[in-house]
Design brief:
Keywords: Membrane, Transmembrane, Transmembrane helix. GO terms for molecular function: antioxidant activity; oxidoreductase activity. It comes from Chryseolinea soli. This is TlpA family protein disulfide reductase. The chain starts with a helix and ends in a 16-residue tail after the last strand. Strand 5 and strand 6 form a beta hairpin. Helix content is 35%, strand content 14%. It is built from 6 helices and 7 strands, in the order αβαβαβαβββααβ. The longest helix has 25 residues. The protein has a 5-stranded mixed sheet. It has a two-stranded antiparallel ribbon with strand order 4-7.
Amino acid sequence: MKGRITIFSISALLAVISMGWIFWEQEAKYILPTPVPPQFKDVKFGASIDLSLYHVAPGRITMLHFFNPDCPCSRFNMMEFERIASKYRDQADVYVVLQSTDEEDVETFRRKYDLNLPILLDHDGAISDRCGIYSTPQSVVLDKESKLYFKGNYNVARYCTRKETSFAEIAMDHLLKGEALPLWVTTELTLPYGCTLPSDDPDQSFEISSFF
């Protein structure tokens, strides 16, 4: 009898540990800010961002959407991003930044999301590094001189779609009006939430194709 109780106790403990691990992997770890990679170098607001190598030129406002298909936060955020992209696509150049080494991943993304937006392949994380991004989903807004006007979360947390804290949307509205980014927005953007980009994740080989 005692042996059966012991086996049951061990099994129950293993089940609890397993459920706890699954909860951590799928939910809990995303409640915390994304860990800062050891090699991360911050890029300050107002810095010039040269993306000419990717045919992104000055002259128009530019919005970059950093997407990781393996990230549940990125996938959940797509509906919100589509709404924002649709709102501003006539007033700005809107791009999706997809980390991959395979050109076919672009077509896979297009078929899956059907956004009709240009996609930039960030082969080695060079675009994210230039913009100071290490988490997804994140947005970057450049002014007409390709200076960093905004970078950060779409909202206060990964699953929050509160209108009053729609940071990327607020940034676009102010930039289009020729206004400075509100100070309270920059204060809220100190910690990104979501998933570590593949190029910044030491526990993950950098290959996106298997994620779709």
